[in-house]
Amino acid sequence: MMNARFPSGGRTVGLLLVLAGGLALACGLSAQSAPTPPPEITQLELGKPIEAELHGGQTQSYRIQAKAGQFLHVVALQEGIDVAVTLFDPSDKQLAQSDVLNGAYGPELVSAIAEVSGEFRLDVNCPSKQAPAGKVEVKLSALRPPTTSDRNQ
Questions:
Q1: 133 in Cβ contact with 68 (< 8 Å)
Q2: CB atoms < 10 A from the CB of 39, how many?
Q3: Is the pLDDT score of 138 beyond 80?
Q4: Where do runs of H (alpha helix) occur along the chain?
Q5: Which residues 6+ apart lie within 8 Å of 104 measured at CB?
Q6: Which residues are bridge partners to 72 per DSSP?
Q7: What is the pLDDT of residue 3?
Q8: Which among 59, 101, 129, 133 counts the fewest CB atoms within 10 Å?
Protein backbone atom coordinates (compact mmCIF):
# COMPACT_ATOMS: atom_id res chain seq x y z
CA MET A 1 0.00 0.00 0.00
CA MET A 2 1.32 3.40 -0.99
CA ASN A 3 0.95 6.43 1.13
CA ALA A 4 0.83 9.62 -0.78
CA ARG A 5 2.18 12.64 0.96
CA PHE A 6 0.93 16.05 0.03
CA PRO A 7 2.61 19.20 1.06
CA SER A 8 0.33 21.52 3.00
CA GLY A 9 -0.38 23.42 -0.27
CA GLY A 10 -1.85 20.23 -1.77
CA ARG A 11 -4.45 20.00 0.98
CA THR A 12 -5.38 23.62 0.37
CA VAL A 13 -5.83 23.03 -3.36
CA GLY A 14 -7.93 19.93 -2.69
CA LEU A 15 -10.11 21.79 -0.20
CA LEU A 16 -10.58 24.65 -2.69
CA LEU A 17 -11.64 22.19 -5.39
CA VAL A 18 -14.20 20.60 -3.06
CA LEU A 19 -15.56 24.02 -2.08
CA ALA A 20 -15.67 25.20 -5.70
CA GLY A 21 -17.56 22.06 -6.73
CA GLY A 22 -20.07 22.55 -3.91
CA LEU A 23 -20.54 26.18 -4.84
CA ALA A 24 -21.11 25.31 -8.50
CA LEU A 25 -23.65 22.66 -7.50
CA ALA A 26 -25.44 25.08 -5.18
CA CYS A 27 -25.58 27.75 -7.89
CA GLY A 28 -26.91 25.25 -10.41
CA LEU A 29 -29.66 24.12 -8.06
CA SER A 30 -30.71 27.65 -7.16
CA ALA A 31 -30.83 28.64 -10.84
CA GLN A 32 -33.08 25.67 -11.58
CA SER A 33 -35.42 26.37 -8.68
CA ALA A 34 -35.80 30.06 -9.50
CA PRO A 35 -39.26 30.67 -10.97
CA THR A 36 -39.50 31.61 -14.63
CA PRO A 37 -41.05 35.06 -14.99
CA PRO A 38 -44.38 35.06 -16.84
CA PRO A 39 -44.29 36.30 -20.42
CA GLU A 40 -45.04 39.98 -20.83
CA ILE A 41 -48.61 40.71 -21.88
CA THR A 42 -49.00 43.35 -24.60
CA GLN A 43 -51.43 46.22 -24.06
CA LEU A 44 -54.07 46.57 -26.79
CA GLU A 45 -54.95 50.17 -27.61
CA LEU A 46 -58.03 51.30 -29.48
CA GLY A 47 -57.51 51.28 -33.25
CA LYS A 48 -53.85 50.15 -33.10
CA PRO A 49 -53.47 46.65 -34.59
CA ILE A 50 -50.71 44.36 -33.38
CA GLU A 51 -49.39 41.71 -35.75
CA ALA A 52 -47.61 38.67 -34.33
CA GLU A 53 -46.44 35.26 -35.46
CA LEU A 54 -48.12 32.34 -33.72
CA HIS A 55 -47.09 28.68 -33.76
CA GLY A 56 -49.27 25.61 -33.25
CA GLY A 57 -50.07 25.03 -29.59
CA GLN A 58 -49.01 28.57 -28.64
CA THR A 59 -51.07 31.22 -26.81
CA GLN A 60 -50.48 34.97 -26.89
CA SER A 61 -52.19 37.23 -24.37
CA TYR A 62 -53.15 40.88 -24.55
CA ARG A 63 -54.38 43.39 -21.93
CA ILE A 64 -57.31 45.74 -22.38
CA GLN A 65 -58.10 48.53 -19.89
CA ALA A 66 -61.85 49.11 -19.71
CA LYS A 67 -64.32 50.85 -17.43
CA ALA A 68 -67.56 49.37 -16.16
CA GLY A 69 -70.29 49.75 -18.76
CA GLN A 70 -67.97 50.03 -21.79
CA PHE A 71 -68.48 47.91 -24.89
CA LEU A 72 -65.33 46.05 -26.02
CA HIS A 73 -64.97 44.61 -29.50
CA VAL A 74 -61.82 42.79 -30.65
CA VAL A 75 -60.96 41.42 -34.10
CA ALA A 76 -58.23 38.80 -34.58
CA LEU A 77 -57.48 38.43 -38.28
CA GLN A 78 -56.02 34.98 -39.03
CA GLU A 79 -53.36 34.82 -41.73
CA GLY A 80 -52.35 31.19 -42.26
CA ILE A 81 -53.18 29.82 -38.81
CA ASP A 82 -56.49 28.82 -37.23
CA VAL A 83 -56.94 30.37 -33.78
CA ALA A 84 -59.49 30.63 -31.00
CA VAL A 85 -59.96 33.95 -29.18
CA THR A 86 -61.11 34.19 -25.56
CA LEU A 87 -61.87 37.30 -23.50
CA PHE A 88 -61.58 37.28 -19.67
CA ASP A 89 -62.69 39.89 -17.13
CA PRO A 90 -60.38 41.23 -14.37
CA SER A 91 -61.34 38.32 -12.06
CA ASP A 92 -60.34 35.84 -14.81
CA LYS A 93 -63.96 34.91 -15.61
CA GLN A 94 -64.46 33.99 -19.28
CA LEU A 95 -66.74 36.54 -20.98
CA ALA A 96 -66.64 35.55 -24.64
CA GLN A 97 -64.99 33.12 -27.02
CA SER A 98 -64.77 32.81 -30.79
CA ASP A 99 -63.59 29.86 -32.86
CA VAL A 100 -65.60 29.96 -36.07
CA LEU A 101 -65.10 27.45 -38.87
CA ASN A 102 -63.35 29.78 -41.29
CA GLY A 103 -60.08 27.84 -41.33
CA ALA A 104 -56.70 29.54 -41.20
CA TYR A 105 -57.86 32.80 -42.82
CA GLY A 106 -60.42 35.39 -41.81
CA PRO A 107 -61.60 37.09 -38.64
CA GLU A 108 -62.35 35.82 -35.15
CA LEU A 109 -64.50 38.37 -33.28
CA VAL A 110 -65.26 38.79 -29.58
CA SER A 111 -67.45 41.41 -27.92
CA ALA A 112 -68.60 42.08 -24.37
CA ILE A 113 -69.91 44.82 -22.13
CA ALA A 114 -67.64 45.30 -19.12
CA GLU A 115 -69.48 44.77 -15.86
CA VAL A 116 -66.52 46.06 -13.81
CA SER A 117 -63.59 48.39 -14.40
CA GLY A 118 -60.11 46.96 -14.71
CA GLU A 119 -57.69 45.01 -16.83
CA PHE A 120 -59.28 42.48 -19.17
CA ARG A 121 -57.24 39.73 -20.87
CA LEU A 122 -57.58 38.46 -24.41
CA ASP A 123 -56.00 35.08 -25.23
CA VAL A 124 -55.28 34.15 -28.85
CA ASN A 125 -54.58 30.44 -29.04
CA CYS A 126 -53.83 27.87 -31.73
CA PRO A 127 -55.05 24.63 -30.15
CA SER A 128 -53.51 22.36 -32.81
CA LYS A 129 -49.88 21.68 -31.83
CA GLN A 130 -49.15 20.40 -35.36
CA ALA A 131 -50.35 23.58 -37.09
CA PRO A 132 -47.71 25.45 -39.08
CA ALA A 133 -46.83 28.98 -37.96
CA GLY A 134 -48.93 31.85 -39.22
CA LYS A 135 -49.69 35.47 -38.46
CA VAL A 136 -52.48 37.02 -36.45
CA GLU A 137 -53.39 40.69 -36.44
CA VAL A 138 -55.21 41.63 -33.22
CA LYS A 139 -57.10 44.91 -32.97
CA LEU A 140 -59.28 46.51 -30.32
CA SER A 141 -61.81 48.03 -32.70
CA ALA A 142 -64.32 49.39 -30.15
CA LEU A 143 -64.10 50.63 -26.57
CA ARG A 144 -67.09 52.89 -25.99
CA PRO A 145 -70.50 53.16 -24.36
CA PRO A 146 -72.74 50.39 -25.70
CA THR A 147 -75.50 51.05 -28.23
CA THR A 148 -78.88 49.34 -28.14
CA SER A 149 -77.72 46.82 -30.77
CA ASP A 150 -74.58 46.09 -28.66
CA ARG A 151 -76.84 45.25 -25.71
CA ASN A 152 -79.06 43.04 -27.86
CA GLN A 153 -76.13 40.90 -29.01
A1: no
A2: 9
A3: yes
A4: 8-33, 148-152
A5: 78, 79, 80, 81, 82, 131, 134
A6: 112, 143
A7: 52
A8: 101
